Amino acid sequence: MTASGAAGSIYDLGYRGYDGPRLGRRHAIRALFAHSLRACYGIGRGGRAKLAPIILGGFATIPAIVGVGVLALARQMGAPGGMVEEASPIQHATYFGIIATLVMLFCAAQVPEVLGRDQRFNLLSLYFSRALRRVDYAVARLAGIVAAVLVFVILPQAIIFLGLVLSAPDVGAEFGREAAFVPPILGQGLLMSVLLGSVSAAIASFTPRRLYATTAIIVILAVVPVIGGVLVRLGTPDLARLVALVSPMDILDATNAILFGTTAGGDVIAEAGLPDQAYFAAAAILIAAAIAILVRRFQRIAA
Amino acid sequence: MALISLGALTKRYGSITALDGLTLELEPGIIGLVGSNGAGKSTLLKILLGLLEPTSGRASVFDLDVRTHGTEIRQFVGYMPEHDALPPDASATDLVAHLAEISGLPAVAARERTAEVLRHVGLYEERYRAIGGYSTGMRQRVKLAQALVHDPRLLLLDEPTNGLDPAGRDEMLDLVRRTGAEFGMTVVVASHLLGEIERVCNFLVAIEAGKLLRAAPLGSFTERTGVLAIEVEDRAEDLAAALVGRGLEARAASSHAVLVALEDDRPYDIVRDLVAELGLPLIRLEQRRHSLEDLFRDPSEAAA
What is the pLDDT of residue A259? Predict the structure, then answer.
């Protein structure tokens, strides 16, 4: 088909229809998942959108890189085996705790960016008028956010892992020792990303205003543990137990210690003295509640 | 089978009734949905998309129930919302390609279709720039492009000329008309401006306060659209009588004004001749726009 007439340029081939495949919901969900993951790191956005993820990601990974570098240097200079590794502050078991605040800030900064944007610019009507259900939207967006947090928390652990293995005099033996850390790293990394991602998403879904969402996430994640700490000092173990079970950051502190076989860093967990399973159950309940709230919110929101 | 079928469709928001027992069958074509603001146009489009749940009644598109087959229907429906719905920080290409994928198109096809529809709506080099810097006209084009990108069978446009200047309106209407006529796509255009909509559609649906006023081919609306208002210094009654004597439908509205039904250009000459014959000082000759409601009354009623 060629266009004719004064208005048509020689490049105007006329409109052609689309006869190709229509992949439906599944493809839509995958595309939205990938979009959310990228959006969490500001990929496909302007330079300003990349600022927060780059700075936070930098703070989270640089200590791992430096630690591994120092260790590799010490090994080359012939430090006795095992000694430097134990003395190093960069350990698999403590690293999640070291970056916990950065992970929280990452969630507080980026989750409202992804979810609030769709509401702020009325994009939901464009999404919901396509081959997608509202539940699909909520799940795909959440999955992308969780994946982004997972990358954030696993990357430095992977750097430590690779650095230790590759700089070891006996790579095979070091790999064997390090492999033991893989299950707790993946377990805690997944738990952290799912719990913080879903709680942040549930909060952020309620407002198009980024500032409100960011503030609310920080309050829930950072202020609640402080309250717990105060309560512990006041000598009220029952309340401390309660805080330990509703505060995502305290739950993660406890599960990290359980999975790596160390002792928890915070007073709240030490004071609460709850059985191991309680923390995993609390995490599961919080995750389920957050997802339910998120899905319900998007099922009701006007578009 | 009808493309869109509504049966006693009702939507209430609390105590407000947005749609009140709408029953209607629509065949493929370019369909104008006219009504004043708040008549229920947007509500109807959103129900067809499954964005809103009807309170009662039935609505189906492509013979599929909107309540149960939303995703199947939406795969073949394009929607241009009334309000601004574009992120300022993305480029038109990125946004439209992303939305094409959400419509189920594979990534490569989504890119190709995006280039195609952006060219169709008249966005060229600027499509790589962030939408935040676009004019209203360009933004409306992006909204139309995202509705077209997956080559839908049904296109729902909610006030596509919103916020555009006269030239922009003309371009957008021309685009809508071409889209419907050349692609063989069924288009439903919702607008409160009858003058605009009658330029692009071949079927009109008029709703008012959620009720169906009339649904008919465009021709039957335009049969009796015009009224010629003649203002004279005095003796309007004489002029009216003389006009009736020449076989025109005329009546004196006051001692200064005569209204003549205008079906073709014939009355102009007769009025000129009679005014000269009677020696009347002619003050004004004006083709009057009907109010929407006048237009949608049955022709028999309007004549009365």
Answer: 94
Length of chain A: 303
With 0-12 CB in 10 A as exposed, 13-18 as middle and 19+ as buried, what is B121?
Answer: buried
Name which of A142, A104, A97, A294 is nearest A218 in CA terms.
A104
Instruction: Give the DSSP per-residue string, A98-135.
Output: HTHHHHHHHHHHHHHHHHHHHHHTTTHHHHHTSS--HH
Q: What pLDDT sits at residue B183?
A: 81
Q: Please answer whether residues A254 and A227 qualify as being in contact, where contact means their C-beta atoms are separated by less than 8 angstroms.
A: no
Mean pLDDT of B121-127: 89
A74-96: burial string, b at 16+ Cβ within 10 Å, e else: bbeeeeeeeebbeebebbbbbbb
Residue type, A133: R
* Tokens 């992303």, located at residue: B98
B130 close contact with A: CB closer than 8 A: yes
Neighbours of A286 (CB within 10 A): 20
Is B267 in the A-facing interface, judged by CB distances under 8 Å?
A: no
CA B259 to chain CA centroid, nearest Å: 28
Has residue B303 got a pLDDT over 50? no
What pLDDT does B194 receive? 81
Give start and end residues of each alpha helix (H) in A205-247: 210-218, 224-233, 237-246
Closest Cα in chain A, distance from residue B3 (Å): 18
Which residues contact residue A7 at a Cβ distance below 8 angstroms, ignoring those fewer than 6 apart? none
Across the interface, do B151 and A17 touch by the CB < 8 Å criterion? yes
Of A17, A35, A129, which is closest to B51 when you measure between CB atoms? A129
Count CA within 13 A, CB hemisphere, residue B8: 2
Q: Are strands B56-61 and B203-208 parallel, antiparallel or unpaired?
A: unpaired
- Nearest CA to B198 out of B76, B290, B268 is that of B290
Are A121 and B86 an interchain contact pair (Cβ–Cβ within 8 Å)? yes
Which residue, among B302, B291, B84, has the nearest Cα to B208 in the 3D structure?
Answer: B291
pLDDT of amino acid B239:
87
Report whether A287 contacts A198 (CB < 8 A): yes
Q: What are the C-alpha distances in Å from B3 to residues A7, B27, B61?
A: 33, 5, 6
ipTM: 0.87
Q: Does B90 touch chain A (CB under 8 A)?
A: yes
Calpha distance B97→B107 (Å, rounded): 8
CA distances from B116 to B90, B97, B188 (A): 19, 11, 22
Query: CB–CB of A251/A259 below 8 Å?
Result: no
Number of Cβ within a 10 Å radius of residue A160: 25
Cβ B269 vs Cβ B256: under 8 Å:
no
Neighbouring residues of A235: CB distance < 8 A, sequence distance ≥ 6: none
- Tens-place pLDDT, residues A111-164: 999 999 999 999 999 999 998 999 999 999 999 999 999 999 999 999 999 998
Query: What percent of chain B clears pLDDT 90, i.e. is strictly above it?
Result: 51
B49/A28 Cβ within 8 A: no
A61-74 pLDDT per residue, tens: 999 999 988 888 88
